[in-house]
Specification:
Length: 128
């Protein structure tokens, strides 16, 4: 059985609350799970101790049994000191979209034209 440690969403509309669960990877996200390992409440401040609660012994047990950890849960485990930090690289995330790049090019072209016009205007009276 392919096990995952992942988030299962609860809470009402626009008020998310997640359980951290060990589940069969073939089960639905909010469906059947084997064991509840903790909770995550994203509405609380980041420095709150109630934001993420984990039963670290059970998490270690399931990881030892071969359970795969999702990206978000892996970050929680890194913050708790269970896993060592991994370098993540997403170079495309910082690149602006196509429309933003087009706007930046237009703005740069207008600025260059204005600078040329200003330079010509300064040079013309100096010749007289």
């Amino acid at each position: 059985m392919a096990m995952k440690i992942r988030l299962a969403r609860g809470g009402s509309k626009k008020r998310p609350f997640y359980r951290i669960v060990a589940a069969d990877s073939r089960m639905p996200r909010d469906g059947r799970f084997i064991e509840k390992l903790g909770t995550y409440n994203p509405l609380l401040p980041k420095d709150s101790e109630e934001r993420v609660k984990l039963d670290l012994e059970r998490v270690k047990y399931w990881v030892g049994q071969g359970a795969q950890v999702t990206d978000r849960v892996a970050r929680f485990l890194e913050a708790a000191g269970v896993n060592e930090k991994t370098e993540r690289s997403n170079p495309k995330k910082a690149v602006p979209g196509k429309k933003a790049q087009d706007r930046a090019e237009e703005k740069a072209a207008k600025a260059a034209e204005a600078a040329e016009a200003a330079a010509e205007a300064e040079a013309a009276p100096a010749e007289e």
